[in-house]
Here is the input.
Amino acid sequence: MTTYAIQEREVFEVAFESTRHYANPYMDVDLCLVISMPDGNEQRVPGFWAGGNVWKVRVCMTQPGDSAFRTRCSHAEDAGLHDRVGNFSVQPYSGENPLLRRGRLRIGDDRRHFAHADGTPFLWIGDTWWMALSSRLDWPHGFQELAADRVTKGFTVIQIVAGPYPDMPPGDPRNDNEAGYPFLDDFARINPAYYDLADLKIAHLVRNGLVPCIVGMWGYYLPMIGEERASRFWQYLVARYAAYPVVWCICGEGAMPWYLSKDRKADTARQKKGWTEIMRQVRATDPYHNLITIHPTQFGRDQVDDDSLMDFEMLQTGHSDMDSVPNVINSVARAVGRAPRMPVVNSEVNYEGILGRCWQNVQRLCCYHTLLRGAAGFTYGANGIWQVNTDTPYGPSPHGVCWGNTPWREAMRLPGSAQVGNAGRCLSQFPWWQLEAHPEWMDGAEKANDPYAPVATGIPEKLRIFYLPLCWTPPSVRGLKSDLKYLAWYFDPCTGKRHEIGAVSGDAEGNWHPPIPPEAHDWLLILEC
Here is the structure.
């Protein structure tokens, strides 16, 4: 009997070798590790076929102490996989990685925001790398370069697709990495070598404090693959990646049919039903209870038949430049106000540079209108990064249109990414999870559907934050209490710099007229008590 000395919350891998030959080990064999935990409970951790005659189980122990395990295999006669025993000796985590030190994500107690397992609030500032597991974002140089840039700018989540990609048909070589396509034989077999390379990238994100939001595949593949094979693939993903501090996104644009579908209504209904059942399966089989959502055409809740299976709602709010901003405002308001309450993330909007527009000013508008109106997170995207353009551009989508040819390294330097990062850094100075809307605090803030109207939010008698989308002459602040002292300053969302105003107070009616900021663009006005 082997005893493995491991550290709490770190991913540890145990390998087993089968004694039998299987025609299709990916489909034909189920393996799990049954762990007797120190608290007396039992945990069942699924394993996955790693190629050849090797199966692996990845564990993440969350309780220090000694635990015993025993394998269970669907082929009890396989002495290499069934009824193997061992022990884990788990020491407390001693590292500095915040994802491991604080624990994987959960829903905050207020049901509006995210938190780590230890209760530390988590602000979702995401980036869109849909096709980054392909060879177009090479390992290690390109992938590590982009990850380092995003860490420096303050991103916290990476949205990445682990299976068949959007904007292409099945088998398209643009989905390949250095080991080929992720599936073989009409999705009946997996290519483990593809995921050996994907492992390096997923693990690198975690090591750098970035939460991987793993998207299984694009929604329109379900009628092509079939529910059984799509379900098997998700079983594989859970076994391979659940031990990491990840977030599950069941699929992208869940109810959207294939671009050239001949029966869009039937495909939509089938996808909605099928992805709901797969979401149910993931919830039942993930031993670590990673958060679950679905990427939508607009509202995540509308992509499934049972939204109680979701932990939080994703939104997609348009790629029409300024014309999309009112939809951002209205969609966030609708999603935040729906019952039962769950966190909301604007997961796709106005990729910077798409269609030759949606530049940094629009990125700031979408980001602040999302985060200051009650959402738990915002995901940025850059045209050129989501599809990973290289010197050889990605090319046209199945509908025949090319979304843009900007190389990813050039797109990485677009100013909107740094400015979205500035938003996260600014809000992280404050208890942002306690912010509530207070339109009565500023002139014009009651115009809720106007993209250029100010946004007023804060914590009464502690903090006021105002977003001024078009700051030529700042609106008046209202309702300042005479017995409170306020320290006021401007935050420049373009540069991330702070500009002091100083101590301020209201007039006899409680009103105060802010000074004109240093430049005429959008600003944050902060009043701290």
Remarks:
- The longest helix spans residues 264-285.
- The longest strand covers residues 42-51.
- The chain has eleven helices and 26 strands.
- The mean pLDDT is 97.
